[in-house]
């Protein structure tokens, strides 16, 4: 019997010496696997006479059971030890500062923020958003808007012209968002209520002018729309946008080829402190141009001015973003300086809504 005793001792030592789950598995295969040392002994039983098989067989089976149990116990021990080691290695120090996710470090540009704020306000009043191309034809940028051929108003726009095509026609970078009024009236039956945000271009560059800038146009066309509606709409807008309870506005007579009558609108403000305050004070600040859509413009879009009338306005977005958020130089808006955007930008998940607050 001593050969079985020896084998048992050897295997027990191997079992005790296995240091991880892979090693104990190797011991198991080597002992009680198909070709393991104990399994090989069991195979010899067939050749024994019945008497020997009785005693020897019982002893080998006993060995097999003892080794099997010892392996299972060691396996469980090693498994527990592995889990304990992992838990120890993977502990989290909850006192460490949180690493900010990209959605927290990215910033929304103030112009995008102001567009989101303004479209939230007009969306609430039942306006939809329209857009149009930045490369325009002379027809949409000027002619359809009632700029007569050769009229000095065309020169006033400091237009960027493209080279003439085969027919001698020059496309332009749109000088204002007003051409989208025409495209909207061509494609949509009144009643129309749209706002049109977008990029516009003029040859102009200093601390308050950039050759590429942003405007927002508004257009309302119906059968009975009048100047009172224009005034109410702009007043409601200014109160919501500047987040004040009341604003005083001044409508000064002005001229635009595409509106009659035309106005420039100033809002009352206080410039005595470091930042401009709205809804109070004795100063005035011009914020937009507007008027009743000219009958010629309606005609160009196939609308009968005896049936339809309405109003339009246009305002510079960059400047009102500067006013609202206190940026001193317009050129920084487009300098792509990450320090500027992280200082003046807005958190991406703070989406402006009227119920949640525009700028908070
Ligand atoms: N398009 C004008 C500009 O860029 C702004 C403007 C004035 C738009 C009056 C309008 C309007 O729709 O009615 O100077």
Automatic annotation (TrEMBL):
As for subcellular location, the record says:
Cytoplasm
Which GO terms are recorded in the biological process aspect for this UniProt protein? Answer: phenylalanyl-tRNA aminoacylation
Cross-referenced Pfam families: Phe_tRNA-synt_N, tRNA-synt_2d
Q: One GO cellular component from the entry? A: cytoplasm
What keyword terms does UniProt attach to this protein?
Aminoacyl-tRNA synthetase, ATP-binding, Cytoplasm, Ligase, Magnesium, Metal-binding, Nucleotide-binding, Protein biosynthesis
The entry's free-text remark on the cofactor is: Binds 2 magnesium ions per tetramer.
Write down the chemical reaction(s) this protein catalyses.
tRNA(Phe) + L-phenylalanine + ATP = L-phenylalanyl-tRNA(Phe) + AMP + diphosphate + H(+)
Native species: Martelella endophytica
EC number of this enzyme: 6.1.1.20
Give the required cofactors.
Answer: Mg(2+)
Gene Ontology terms for molecular function: ATP binding; magnesium ion binding; phenylalanine-tRNA ligase activity; tRNA binding
Q: What's the main place this protein lives? A: cytoplasm
Task: State which gene encodes it.
Answer: pheS
Record-annotated Aminoacyl-transfer RNA synthetases class-II family profile domain positions: 126-348
**What does the annotation say about its assembly with partners?**
Tetramer of two alpha and two beta subunits.
> What protein is this chain from?
Phenylalanine--tRNA ligase alpha subunit
Key word Ribonucleoprotein present = no
Positions bound to Mg(2+): 260
Into which family does the record put it? Belongs to the class-II aminoacyl-tRNA synthetase family. Phe-tRNA synthetase alpha subunit type 1 subfamily.
- Please name the PROSITE patterns in this protein's record: AA_TRNA_LIGASE_II
By its UniProt entry, which InterPro entries does this protein fall under?
aa-tRNA-synth_II, aa-tRNA-synth_II/BPL/LPL, Phe-tRNA-synth_IIc_asu, Phe-tRNA_ligase_II_N, Phe_tRNA_ligase_alpha1_bac, Phenylalanyl-tRNA_Synthase, tRNA-bd_arm
CDD domains on file: PheRS_alpha_core
């Amino acid at each position: 019997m001593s050969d079985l005793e020896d084998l048992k001792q050897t295997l027990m030592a191997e079992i005790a010496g296995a240091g991880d789950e892979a090693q104990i598995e190797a011991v198991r295969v080597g002992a009680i696997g198909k070709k393991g040392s104990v399994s090989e002994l069991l195979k010899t039983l067939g050749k024994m006479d019945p008497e020997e098989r009785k005693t020897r067989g019982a002893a080998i089976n006993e060995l097999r059971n003892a080794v099997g149990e010892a392996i299972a116990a060691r396996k469980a021990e090693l498994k527990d030890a592995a889990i304990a080691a992992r838990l120890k290695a993977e502990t989290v120090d909850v006192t460490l500062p949180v690493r900010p996710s990209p959605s927290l470090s990215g910033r929304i540009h103030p112009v995008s923020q102001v567009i989101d704020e303004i479209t939230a306000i007009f969306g609430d009043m039942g306006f939809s958003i329209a857009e149009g191309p930045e490369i325009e034809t002379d027809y949409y940028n000027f002619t359809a808007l009632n700029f007569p051929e050769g009229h000095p108003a065309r020169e006033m726009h400091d237009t960027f012209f493209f080279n003439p095509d085969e027919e001698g026609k020059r496309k332009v970078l749109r000088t204002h968002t007003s051409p989208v009024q025409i495209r909207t009236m061509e494609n949509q039956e009144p009643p129309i209520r749209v706002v049109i945000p977008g990029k516009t271009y003029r040859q102009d560059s200093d601390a308050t002018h950039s050759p590429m800038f942003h405007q927002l146009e508004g257009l309302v066309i119906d059968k009975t729309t009048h100047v009172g509606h224009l005034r109410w709409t702009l007043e409601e807008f200014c109160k919501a946008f500047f987040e004040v309870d009341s604003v005083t506005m001044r409508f000064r007579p002005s001229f635009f080829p595409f509106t009659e009558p035309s106005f420039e609108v100033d809002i009352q403000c206080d410039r005595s402190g470091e930042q401009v305050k709205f809804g109070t004070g004795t100063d005035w600040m011009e914020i937009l141009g507007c008027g009743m859509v000219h009958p010629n413009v309606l005609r160009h879009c196939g609308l009968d001015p005896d049936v339809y009338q309405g109003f339009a306005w246009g305002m510079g977005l960059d400047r009102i973003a500067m006013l609202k958020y206190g940026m001193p130089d317009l050129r920084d808006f487009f300098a792509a300086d990450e320090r500027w955007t992280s200082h003046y930008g807005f958190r991406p998940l703070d989406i402006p809504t009227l119920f949640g607050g525009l700028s908070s």
